Amino acid sequence: TLDKILELHKIKGLRMIITLKSIDYLEELKREIRAKDEKLLLMLKNPLAMSDFKEEDLFQFYKENLELFFANVNYHEYSKFFSGSFFPLNETVLKHIFREVNGNPREIIKYLIKIFNDLIISNEKLEDIIEKYQ
Question: Does this model's pTM top 0.70?
Answer without folding.
Answer: no
